[in-house]
User: Fold this.
Amino acid sequence: MVNWSGTALHVVSGKGGAGKTTVAAALAINLARDGKRTLLMEVEGRQGIAQLFDTPPLPYEERRIAIAPGDGEVWALAVDADDALIDYLATFYNLGRAGSALRKMGAIDFATTLAPGLRDVLLTGKACELVRRKIKRTANSYDAVVIDAPPTGRIAQFLNVTAQVSSLAKTGPIHRHAEMVMGVISSPQTAVHLVTLLEEMPVQETIDGIHELQRVNLPTGAIFVNMTRNPILDEKQSAKVRKGTLAIKKISEVAIEAGIRQPVEILADGLLREANDHVVRADLETRERARIDELQIPTITLPYLTRGIDLGSLYALAEVMYDEGVR
Amino acid sequence: MSAFNIDAPHFDIDAIVLNPDIHIIVCTGAGGVGKTTAAAALALRAAEHGRQVCVLTIDPARRLAQAMGVEKLDNTPRRVVGIEQLHGSGSLDAMMLDMKRTFDEVVEAHSDPERAQQILENPFYQSLSSSFAGTQEYMAMEKLGQLHAQARSEGTWDLIVVDTPPSRSALDFLDAPARLGSFLDGKFIRILAAPARGAGRGIGKLAAVGFGFFTSALSKILGSQVLNDVGAFVTAIDSTFGGFRERADATYALLKDSHTSFIVIAAPEPDALREASYFVERLHADSMPLAGLVLNRVQEVTLAAVSREQALAAAEVLELGDVNQKLAAALLELHSERAAMVQRQQDVAARFTSAHPGVPVVTVVALPQDVHDLSGLREIGELLAD
Assistant:
């Protein structure tokens, strides 16, 4: 059970292929339950949210993309650094028409390239601006903002914006902006979640990622353990598979009696192979799970969905999250 | 047991890896699909079949690096010990890319020591060479060029296998070098370097106004020091850069060569195959030689003749019975889940193959463990060549 009622900013990171975008989307649906309003934000220009929700590519504009159980609303925003810089300059420097001329000339790309840290400050800055609407109680505020963030290997650097700009600017507007962003990101209002699979490499990255977040004092939230397999075999049954004491011929005969039309040797061979693979995989998951537990961070376990991820299974995942205590 | 059902020409890996006319193999694909491991496995296979191989890895997992003995990041190929000589006497050298060091070396090679020192100490250069999005791709390309030149002049290797950086998009490997090139060569950076020459020339009036505004906004938000650093950097690198860009162009041309071959790696997941599609289309558009697709980590097919529904129906009958009946029910349920996963993977793969019917494909079954040693790599090489 996790209590995220005081959390306004959820940063979802994870290893590529672990289901980061899916988990972020299911979390946004879940947090929007019962009349709330959440924003799902992506920052890498992949248009992963649009693909997931099967909508046309998202512009730099907040759009409602889904509803949540009990009249909730999920909004989405795809931020890219160029847009965020124009937005920033327009807000603080009254840029006017010069903005679009500069964009045409590639000036914005140039500026964000010039100062790599600037890119991240602008992206996280946009998220913080959305979060602060709630504090300011403006009409278009969100109960929670969920960022589909860069992968685990880059997350601490991405969020630790003051460290990034300190080499650039020790004073001045961007420095103050970074301080503001850091004030939100390092506060209890923020939770950084990592999505992992129960496999060796993703778990190692998750452990390294958590340590890195702790080292730079960023608030860790939960670890979402994604795509876990249904155990199916109980402890006694698994032990038999491990010890090789399954009465596989007898079991196959029983299955044939129940309607499986296969020669007994072929069925026995196939079932045994599948049972062995399953137990090897389940044991691996148990070992990796123990390594995650050592971190002593809340975990939320999500199932592997055999039919793949579509809008229906996204809501199913949100249900599982709810049952796992995500509020 | 029957094979993963895929409607595509078979991709004969050995026809590429063991082909003496192929001198460069580029392994590309989305992150997290086992690209680095596949590159290492192909390199090992070629070496154990008598070729003189160098593999350039970008960011290998610790254990893979240990297996090949390249944990130490010294930007130089090191001999991998423990390879088996199956045919002839091959060799394998492996290295891990150090992008900053590669960049530094290029600067040093193209400037006199004093100028080089100036560039290396410039704060803007330091941020460019360590964190610019695209530097890694650029330097991977640069390193490939260097290794290729060395192979030519010294006869060190007859095959170079390159892993590509874990970019947001696999296309970045092809695009980033040009992007960095045009950035360093661009109008903006030039004007910024020499504001005295006037910001207005050649960029139009409105833009000139915008530009002046922009530079002043930039120096306000970033501080004028940043712009001074950029100016100093551009002035210092001017002489160096011509050679620099030419090298990148030459390496890019090398990728179109008939002695080069691209292998696209994917997992049977929608995102990974979408990336693979983009890449295949791009290679085609740029006339770059695509050898085929490796579909990694597919679920091995077992008991193909027993359908998911059959298994579930029988399991339902058996689940309240005695010990063996319960076991039979559980094993049939396992089978039905596995069959469902195979079905899903085949559906996803079919979307790719119907869009790209001519692309040869080889599938590799998912292994329960990550690679820890050379024999693990060898096993993957055998699966690839199967």
Remarks:
- The first strand of chain B starts at residue 24 and ends at 28.
- Chain B touches chain A through 75 residues (CB under 8 Å).
- Residues 196-202 of chain B have pLDDT under 50 and may be disordered.
